[in-house]
Amino acid sequence: RQDEIDIDRVMWASKKAQIFDFIEEYDQGYDTLIGERGVSLSGGQKQRTSLARSFYSEHTRLLLLDDVLSAVDHNTEVKLIENLYQRSPACTCVIVSHRMSVLEQADRVLVLDQGRVVDLDPPQNLVQKKGLYAQAWQAQQEEFKQKSNAVNQESQYKSLDEFASNAIASPDLINDQEQELSTITVSTVNSSIDPA
Predict the structure, then answer these.
(1) Alpha carbons 184 and 12: distance in angstroms, whole number
(2) CA distance 26 to 142
């Protein structure tokens, strides 16, 4: 019932589930109709709404999450993982995921291959065992590095720090960017930028 809902707890839960800002953008906030089965929400928004419901409940003893972070970006995922692992010790959380980053803080990871259990250990031990989990972990680390490099190359001059580093490495850039350099001072000692 509407009169039994603790709006402060709803807001707290939505912050924990990383959906607070999105809800606040709606004119009617938490009273916004989202359509049958959340038809107006993206996959990530639906996942975070479900997580907010689980955070709201104070008496959850078992939480089953099946690939719950598959539709969220990396930064949101990091915050959600932190909040999930901060839950009450009285709540057992079973997480099904193909993302190794989601499992890094787990007490134990059960590794399945073709529906069969092939390993059970803390994630740190599984990485060192060089088995199926370690192979998947290594592949995801490489993929993350490649994506990070691509993003870094795309946004090469989006920050002044990156511009300064590139200007020091390549003096030709200084001539191409004279107007920008007139407002900053490039320190060759630590490659930082100070306002002029």
Answers:
(1) 41
(2) 39
